[in-house]
Write a structure and sequence with these properties.
Mean pLDDT: 85
Strand order of the largest sheet: 1-2-3
Number of helices: 12
Low-confidence stretches: 1-10, 12-39
Shape: elongated
């Protein structure tokens, strides 16, 4: 009897412990899920920072593929100039003939191309000012210009940038090969100084193209995308994202990115206001978010291609 009673007690205890562990584990999962949801909600500043970092990485892929033969031809041209400076005209002429040969190959492979990329790099310029501070700075620039302080105005204007620049240096196929041939003729004729002058002009004739990506539009785009993801689960934070997106659009506008596109800016701002009202009401804004994100991406792409 005693043994049977102990077995009953032990069985009851085992069942109780099993129920306790199941409940505890379930609570743990709920807490873990809740914590995960909380950590997924970032501040507007965190979203903005991440947006710029992502765009910088994407910028490296936008860079055009560089032409190795053209890079070698330009590097050899510098060497030719150095050889001429050392009065090694024979070696300079031999190397210049190789450059001319390389240019012939490049021309044959790029019949319908006028520029060949030889260098590419990214520059990021940003400001910590908001739209109101930018407008004050613009007023100060205007004041300095009316006072004749052009250099002071220029310094202030240089601060009014918030962009990722992809800079691409290109070799002009329309002029560079002919310059090499002319320099070769000058060397053969013993006109070394004229040859060096022609080569220097050719080396300074690289065409620089710049793709400008406005950072405020990058930030606004990511903030709106994040708002679309949490508009039902974290309404207040989604509204904060949208408010900051509106501020970024205003910043892009006062900085003059797409200055001729005031109508588009008004449309984007109005769409954000409509989405905010929808979130505060029935909160069925999925389609509205989709259209706004698409519209903003198209605008950013058009600004990039217009530079």
């Amino acid at each position: 009897m005693i043994i049977r009673e102990n077995l009953k007690k032990e069985g009851f205890l085992a069942v109780f412990m099993l129920i306790f562990l199941v409940v505890s584990f379930s609570e743990g999962l709920c807490q873990e899920k809740a914590t995960k949801n909380e950590t997924e909600v970032k501040t507007s500043a965190q979203i903005s920072k991440r947006a710029v970092e992502k765009e910088e990485k994407k910028a490296s892929h936008i860079k055009q593929e560089l032409n190795d033969k053209a890079i070698k031809a330009v590097a050899d041209t510098y060497t030719v100039v150095e050889l001429l400076n050392q009065k090694k005209t024979k070696e300079a002429l031999e190397l210049l003939k190789k450059v001319i040969g390389e240019m012939e190959v490049i021309l044959a492979a790029n019949e319908n191309v006028s520029l060949i990329p030889i260098n590419s790099y990214t520059v990021v310029v940003d400001i910590a000012l908001g739209p109101e501070e930018v407008l004050k700075t613009i007023t100060e620039v205007t004041k300095k210009l009316t006072q004749g302080d052009v250099q002071g105005a220029r310094i202030l204007l240089d601060t009014l940038q918030s962009e990722i620049d992809i800079v691409i240096e290109n070799l002009p196929l329309a002029t560079y090969p002919d310059a090499m041939k002319l320099a070769s003729k000058y060397i053969i004729d013993g006109k070394v100084e004229e040859a060096k002058s022609v080569l220097q002009i050719a080396l300074n004739s690289m065409v620089v193209k710049k793709i400008i990506i406005p950072i405020p539009l990058v930030r606004a785009s990511d903030l709106i995308e994040e708002a679309s993801k949490i508009s039902k689960t974290h309404k207040e934070q989604a509204l904060k994202y949208l408010d900051e997106a509106k501020r970024q659009l205003k910043l892009a506008k006062v900085l003059g990115y797409g200055n001729e596109d005031q109508k588009i800016y008004r449309d984007l701002q109005a769409r954000i206001d409509s989405i905010k009202k929808e979130i505060e009401g029935k909160n069925e804004a999925a389609k509205m978010f989709e259209e706004l994100i698409k519209r903003l991406k198209e605008f950013k792409k058009r600004l990039m291609s217009s530079e």
